[in-house]
Amino acid sequence: MDIDILSEDENPMLHRTDVKFEMVHDEATPSRLSVRDSLAAMLNKDADEVVIRKLDTKFGMRKTVGHAKVYDTAERARDVEQEHMLERNKIIADEGSEEAEEA
């Protein structure tokens, strides 16, 4: 799977970079998690700091266009992103520390 970055837009208010990318793959569309891991490695980021928002593959094509949000820290991603996007990207919230604070 070859990933090419099409555009990167800084968003300093939310401490993230919005990334549009294109990838060419030999088989079926890769899973969201494998794309996230490959993109994170390419950008020298931790996988928990990358949230894949959208993957769009046209029928019968071996090319996918995607949108990702790359945060400065994993904590920023958990603070800003919606729960369902965190679940889709397997970014685990720090539930243990919240329960300890409430007790």
List the helices and strands and how they pair.
Blueprint: E1 2-11, E2 16-24, H1 32-42, E3 50-57, E4 63-71, H2 74-80, H3 83-88, H4 95-102
Antiparallel strand pairs: 1-2, 2-4, 3-4
Question: Quick recap of the structure?
Answer:
The protein has 103 residues and is an alpha+beta fold. The chain is built from 4 helices and 4 strands, in the order ββαββααα.
Protein architecture, described:
With 103 residues, this protein is α+β, with helices and mostly antiparallel strands. It has four helices and four strands. A four-stranded antiparallel sheet has the order 1-2-4-3. Residues 96-103 have low confidence and may be disordered. A hairpin with a 4-residue loop joins strand 1 (2-11) and strand 2 (16-24). It has one domain (2-92): Alpha-Beta Plaits (2-Layer Sandwich).
Unreliable spans:
96-103
Helicity level, as a percent range?
25-40%
Named at the architecture level, the CATH assignment is: 2-Layer Sandwich
H/E element string?
EEHEEHHH
Structural class comes to alpha+beta
If helices are DSSP runs of H or I spanning 4 or more residues, what is the number of helices? 4
The CATH topology annotation reads as Alpha-Beta Plaits
Biggest sheet strand order reads 1-2-4-3
Coarse morphology: globular
N- and C-termini, Cα separation: 47 Å
CATH superfamily: RRM (RNA recognition motif) domain
